[in-house]
Specification:
Length: about 325
C-alpha cells in the first residue's frame, strides 16, 4: 500500500513509520504545515517527497493516509482524504467535538474508504490475553475494573498537550480515550455515565493534567480510571476483578510490548505467559487487511467516536462536579 503521512509528528517518527514499513507499506510523501520542519523530517526518515499543501500529495498517488497532526486538524484532513478516495488511519482523539468525529466517520462511509482510529492498547498481546480470560469465563462474572494509566509526560512532549486547549490538549483527551477503548475491547461495552475529578497539578496550563473517574457500565460493572501526566513513579496497571478470580496486570498501559499479568483465584496466584508483539505493527496489519478485504478494522472510526464521547463526558462531569450521562451521537 502507498501511504502519505499528514503531520510531521513525534508519533510518526517514533512508531508509525516503522510500523507502516513493517507491513510492506511504502511511505511516498509527507504533508506538513511547516515546510522546513517537514523537509528535515523527510530527510531523517527516508521519505522521498514533502508537500506544502494536501493537494500536492495527490500526484504521488497514495492509497492511504496516516494522520498524526494535532487534534484540531484531524477533521479537515480526514475529510480531504476521504473526498479524494484515500483510506484513513487517524490518530486519537479523532477530534475535539462529537459532531466533528461523527462527520469524519460519515465522510469516510459516503466515499467508501476504510477509516481506523489508532487505539493501540487493544492490539497488545497482554490485553488480548486478559480478554481471552474474560471470554473463557476464567474470572467469572466481572465486578470491577481499575485502569491506572498514570505516567509522567516526558519533557519533549510538554508542549500543546499541556498548554493548548485549542489543539486538543489535556490528559483526558490524550489518555482517557485509550482507556475507554481498552475497557470496551475487554468488556464489550461503553459507560452509560461517568463521574470525574480533574485537576491541573503541575504541568497543565489551563488544562487538566490529572484525572480520576468512575464509570457506570450497562451491565453494572464498576470501572475506575486514573489518567495522569504528573506521576513519575506510579507505573501503569490494569485490574479486572470477577466472581471467580482477579487479573492484575502491571506496566501494561504503554506503547511498548511489555508488561506482566497475574491471575489469582482460589487455587492461588500464577503469572500468565505472554508472547509480546509490537502493538502498532498489529494495528497497521489489521488496517491493511481491512482495506484489502473491504471490511471494518478492529478499531474503526465508530470506535474513535465512542472513545471521544467518553472523554468529552468526563470533561463535562469534571466541570459540573456531577455524574454525566455519556452521549454517543
Ligand atoms: P507532535 O507535537 O510531535 O506533532 C504534532 C504536530 O506538531 C506535527 O504534526 C507538526 O505539524 C507539528 N510539529 C511537531 N514538531 C514540530 C517542529 N519541530 N516544528 C514545527 N512543527 C512541529 O505530536 P505527537 O506526535 O505527540 O502527537 C500527534 C498525534 O498523535 C496526536 O493526535 C496525538 O494524540 C497522537 N498520539 C497517539 C498515540 C497513540 O499511541 N495512538 C501516542 C502519541 C500521540 P504539521 O502537522 O504541520 O507537520
Amino acid at each position: 500500500m502507498r501511504w502519505a503521512l499528514i503531520g510531521a509528528s513525534n508519533m510518526a517518527q517514533e512508531w508509525m513509520i516503522e510500523a507502516i514499513r513493517s507491513q510492506g507499506g511504502e511511505i511516498i510523501g509527507l504533508y506538513s504545515g511547516n515546510i522546513e520542519h517537514g523537509r528535515q523530517f523527510c530527510e531523517r526518515n527516508g521519505i522521498p517527497a514533502c508537500a506544502d499543501t494536501l493537494d500536492n500529495l495527490l500526484p504521488l498517488k497514495p492509497d492511504a493516509v496516516y494522520i498524526s497532526s494535532t487534534n484540531e486538524k484531524h477533521q479537515a484532513q480526514v475529510e480531504w482524504a476521504a473526498e479524494h478516495g484515500l483510506h484513513v488511519y487517524c490518530e486519537k482523539p479523532l477530534a475535539l467535538t462529537l459532531d466533528s468525529a461523527l462527520a469524519m466517520v460519515d465522510v469516510c462511509e459516503k466515499n467508501g474508504v476504510i477509516m481506523a482510529t489508532n487505539h493501540h492498547l487493544r492490539h497488545a498481546a497482554l490485553h488480548r490475553k486478559i480478554k481471552q480470560c474474560i471470554d473463557d469465563g476464567i474470572v467469572g462474572q466481572i465486578l470491577s475494573v481499575r485502569v491506572m494509566h498514570a505516567v509522567y509526560l516526558p519533557e519533549s512532549l510538554q508542549s500543546w498537550r499541556v498548554k493548548d486547549k485549542a489543539a486538543g490538549g489535556g490528559v483526558i483527551l490524550d489518555i482517557a480515550v485509550h482507556n475507554a477503548d481498552l475497557v470496551a475491547f475487554l468488556l464489550g461495552e461503553y459507560p452509560v455515565s461517568v463521574s470525574t475529578h480533574a485537576a491541573s497539578r503541575k504541568l497543565g496550563v489551563g488544562l487538566e493534567d490529572d484525572s480520576m473517574s468512575i464509570w457506570t457500565m450497562p451491565t453494572g460493572v464498576a470501572v475506575y480510571t486514573h489518567e495522569s501526566f504528573v506521576t513519575p513513579f506510579a507505573g501503569t496497571a490494569l485490574e479486572v476483578h470477577g466472581s471467580k478470580g482477579s487479573i492484575v496486570a502491571s506496566n501494561c498501559l504503554t506503547q511498548k510490548p511489555v508488561g506482566e499479568v497475574v491471575l489469582s483465584n482460589e487455587s492461588g496466584s500464577k503469572a500468565l505467559t505472554i508472547e509480546h508483539h509490537n502493538l502498532y505493527h498489529a494495528a497497521v496489519s489489521d488496517f491493511c487487511k481491512a482495506v484489502e478485504a473491504n471490511t471494518q478494522p478492529a478499531c474503526d472510526g465508530v470506535a474513535g467516536v465512542k472513545s471521544l464521547s467518553v472523554a468529552l463526558s468526563m470533561l463535562q462531569a469534571a466541570e459540573l462536579h456531577q455524574e454525566v450521562e455519556v452521549f454517543y451521537g
